[in-house]
Amino acid sequence: MRITSSFLLPAALVLASSALAQNAPRPGAQIPAPALYKLDDAFLEWPLQAQDKAYGAIEGKRLNGYVADLTAISRKYRDQGHPQFWGRIIGTSADSDTAQWMLDKFKQFGLADVHIQSFDLPDQWMPQSWDVSATGGGKTIHAITAQPAYQTKGTPAEGLDLEAVYLGTGSATDFAGRDVKGKAVFIFSMPLPGSWRNTGVLEGGLRMAEERGAAAVFNIVALPGNIRTQLYPTRTNIPTFSMGMDDGYAIRDLIGKGSARVKIKLDIKMTPGMKTGTVWGTLPGVTDETINIIAHRDGWFESGSDNASGVATMVGLAEYFAKVPKAQRRRTIVFAGTSGHHNGGNASGTWLLDHKDEVFAKSALLINCEHTATIQTYLFGEDIRMANTSTAMLWYAGGPSRPKLQAIAVKAFHDFGVATYANPEQAAPGGEMSRLWQHVPGVQASDYNHFFHSDQETAETVPWTGLQAITRAYAKIMVGVNTLDLKDVQRPSEVPATPSPGR
Could you tell me the pTM of the whole model? Predict the structure, then answer.
């Protein structure tokens, strides 16, 4: 199993492991040939229409440079002594570096009232180190892609030494008649489409293992290759890990050949005294009515799509509108780089919700820049194949009670070649707007991809053409909304018909 791309370095295609599952022969037609071009030079670019020439100032390759800056901050944090749990994690030095980067951009563009609103964080779950190895039949496998689920429980200092059992997809049928008490359970989990949603979590296999007395549980994410993924809290009270497919298959095969044991060490500390903040900047308009733009700054691993792409889009909008004369900006534009939500530090989002009546009192529009561009991928045979275009997006544009806003958004997406699902979502598609969409006219287009929350979600998975298209579309939506009065978009707070898809 492998990931295939024309631009990733070979060392990044399949992470090394001491023992990998053997690939079975497959038809030659299913094996991709060598690349004929550099993918970055071959992305399909949507041509500008004559009436939209002004938006050509928003250049995708410049935006992609911002993505590269942000992913470099993640790698810097990793290389400073955090090789396992890394990224732009809330409360860490990478968080403050990202905030400073954004602050500097806002000042460079000439925004007003540029500042960081600081928050003290509660004690944060911070894994210090871990090790997982399986032994059987004279072989030992060091599972380098084992990654503790967020907020999972650690092990005793001496670690755990457990019998390993494989339980298929972790259904009730798989557990029937099986004794898992005191054992390490391995479950094969289908991504939906990436590790953020997967069958092991959604169908209850991980919790079922705990309920039946397992001492640890491993969620093998069924994506070709050996991808390290970070799971959100699984609501289990035993050490819980995700694991790459090659590592998982290798351990499964050990178990299949006879008895196997797993050694686990996981050192977790609740770290006090950490801080985060919201980065604010304002472009004054001719009225005190507002358009609000937000993007969360945090992410796991390089987090190219989630959410370096969104931050790049927001910064690109600030750069573009800073060059528009104030007399042509009907409404004041307020930018907020939020702390984020990947760990227990969603301070910005909580503050915005608590102060919604103040912040959004005169808001004609809230755009949440989140997961704004990703390369289109296809799971074909035993490879994740990349295309020379960007993905279609989940999207929301204020809902049916705001037909004028929806019409403006639909046209802007179409005019700049932003591919979307045929139907909008009933609410904002997750993330920073999941608790705000009921209270403010909101627009969001987001993608959740194969590499979501994994160490393969690099800057190279963000196509510059996709960034260019969505940022131009958002800019045109902002201009279009400025032709509407507040009464055309503002509504009383809505009660969602179904639970909102917040994360």
Answer: 0.92
The verdict on residue 21 lying in a domain is no
Q: What is the residue range of 322's domain?
A: 43-123+273-488
Residue type, 37: Y
Backbone phi and psi for residue 164, each to the nearest 5 degrees, phi listed first? -100, 140
Query: Residue 387: what residue type?
Result: A
Do 313 and 423 fall into the same domain? Answer: yes
CATH number at residue 185: 3.50.30.30
For residue 55, give the DSSP letter. Answer: G
Q: How many domains does the chain have?
A: 2
In angstroms and rounded to an integer, the radius of gyration of the C-alpha atoms of the chain is 23
Give domain status of residue 465, yes or no: yes
- Which one of 269, 295, 322 terminates a domain? 269
Distances in Å between the alpha carbon of 173 and those of 161, 203, 216? Answer: 27, 12, 20
Torsions phi, psi for 291 (to 5 deg): -115, 130
The reply to whether 434 and 310 lie within a common domain is yes
Residue 58 is assigned to a structural domain of this protein? yes
C-alpha–C-alpha distance, residues 276 and 118, integer Å: 6
Q: Cα–Cα distance between 61 and 42 in angstroms, integer?
A: 13
User: Residue 488: how many CB atoms within 10 A of its CB?
Assistant: 14
Asked if residue 495 is part of any domain, the answer here is no
Asked if residue 133 and residue 93 are part of one domain, the reply reads: no
CATH classification of the domain holding 431: 3.40.630.10
Is the CB of residue 392 less than 8 Å from the CB of residue 380? Answer: no
Whether residues 191 and 243 share a domain: the answer is: yes
pLDDT tens string, the chain, 503 residues long: the values are 344 443 333 233 333 333 333 455 556 667 888 999 999 999 999 999 999 999 999 999 999 999 999 999 999 999 999 999 999 999 999 999 999 999 999 999 999 999 999 999 999 999 999 999 999 989 999 999 999 999 999 999 999 999 999 999 999 999 999 999 999 999 999 888 766 788 888 889 999 999 999 999 999 999 999 999 999 989 999 999 999 999 999 999 999 998 899 999 999 999 999 999 999 999 999 999 999 999 999 999 999 999 999 999 999 999 999 999 999 999 999 999 999 999 877 899 999 999 999 999 999 999 999 999 999 999 887 888 999 999 999 999 999 999 999 999 999 999 999 999 999 999 999 899 999 999 999 999 999 888 889 999 999 999 999 999 999 999 999 999 999 999 999 999 987 665 444 44
Between CA 32 and CA 39 the distance in angstroms is: 14
The residue with tokens 């999207």 is 395
Q: 269, 296, 314 — which closes off a domain? A: 269
**314 and 442 both lie in a single domain:** yes
Name the maximum alpha-carbon separation found in the chain. Answer: 76
DSSP state of 294: E
